[in-house]
Amino acid sequence: MENLKALSYELRKNVVDMIMEGNGGHIGGDMSVMDILVQLYFNDMNISPENMDDPNRDRFVMSKGHSVEALYAVLAAKGFFPIEQVIKEFSKFGSKFIGHPNNKLPGIEMNSGSLGHGLPVCVGMALAGKMNKQDYRVYTVMGDGELAEGSVWEAAMAGHQYKLDNLCAIVDRNRLQISGSTEDVMAHDSQEERWASFGWHVISVNGNDHDELAAALAEARTVKGAPTVIIANTVKGCGSAVMENKANWHHKVPTAEEYTQIMKDLEARKEAALHE
Q1: List of residues 6+ apart from 88 with CB closer than 8 A
Q2: How far apart are CA 107 and CA 193, in angstroms?
Q3: Do residues 89 and 76 make contact, with C-beta atoms less than 8 angstroms apart?
Q4: Who contacts 29 (Cβ-Cβ below 8 Å, separation ≥6)?
Q5: Phi/psi at 193 (nearest 5 deg)?
Q6: Residue 123: its pLDDT value, please?
Q7: Does the chain have fewer CB atoms within 10 Å around its N or its C terminus?
Q8: How many Cα atoms are found within 13 Å in the side-chain-facing hemisphere of 33?
Q9: For the chain, which domains are there?
């Protein structure tokens, strides 16, 4: 697990390089969601470059598609494409590495980022798996600001109605969105009570703690007769005090000075993870 923690910080460094090279990106949410993605791709999901066309592969949809930089970094580390190519081409004219997930790239199931769409599509994927008697699992990551979209709750009702225990939704609960605190923009505590009222199995964890995430994903696999939601309480900008818990880092390019400090902080946390 220490290796995965260290990997998460190394991939955060790749994200920062990507955003610097592309001159744009949603850096705060990239940092908060990274540990979740690393756990999914390296410790939980049955998906790889070798089986990405297998009908029985697990499915993942990045519903908060504006945090695509984190997804590109993880997919590159998994072997879907070279990280050097991503950093060089990100957000450049004519590039496939655009600012939201692009299913012209290997490993990406669908174009996403129009908020509120990921969970409804995943309900369809999970229902198809049930109808076809396949045993793949379906995962989606949503931002907490995204949960103001009504389509999320229509999908939540459907997930319960069809007893989609092959479906796991994860909420990146960093409590900040582009216009400020989620509780100021559209309050929705308690997330746990809301999802439970829709008939979902609810797990609440520290979303930047790999041990807690691994345990939650393992628990989700044991649930029968209901979908699972993991409320992953995270820190926006996780990895450097320069960015942490600051709404203005939702979408921002670091200055040269900030870049140096952020990379120094990430390397220090990576080394600390390796020696826990």
Answers
A1: 21
A2: 34
A3: no
A4: 64, 66, 67, 70, 143, 172, 174, 236, 250
A5: -65, -40
A6: 98
A7: C
A8: 31
A9: 2-274 (3.40.50.970)
pTM score above 0.85: yes
Sequence length of the chain is 276
Q: Tell me the sheet residues that pair with 228.
A: 168, 201
Nearest to 150 by CA among 204, 186, 192: 186
228: which residues sit within 8 A by CB, 6+ positions away? 165, 167, 168, 169, 200, 201, 202, 203, 219, 220
Task: Say how far apart CA 125 and CA 101 lie, in whole Å.
Answer: 18
Peptide bond preceding 240: is omega within 30 degrees of 0, i.e. cis? no
Neighbouring CB atoms inside 10 A of 131's CB total 9
Tracing tokens 């949960």 back to the chain, one arrives at 147
Amino acid occupying residue 36: I
Ordered per-residue pLDDT tens for the chain, 276 residues: 779 999 999 999 999 999 999 999 999 999 999 999 999 999 999 999 999 999 999 999 999 999 999 999 999 999 999 999 999 999 999 999 999 999 999 999 999 988 999 999 999 999 999 999 999 999 999 999 999 999 999 999 999 999 999 999 999 998 877 777 878 788 888 999 999 999 999 999 999 999 999 999 999 999 999 999 999 999 999 999 999 999 898 999 999 999 999 999 999 999 999 988
Residue 177, strand partner residues: 180
CA distance 50 to 61: 19
| Helix pair 210-222, 2-22: axis angle to 10 deg | 110
**Sign, CA torsion 172/175/177/183:** positive
- Report d(CA 267, CA 69) in Å as an integer: 19
The contacts of residue 229 (CB under 8 Å, 6+ apart) are 168, 169, 170, 171, 195, 200, 201, 202, 203
Tokens representing residue 147 in the block: 């949960």
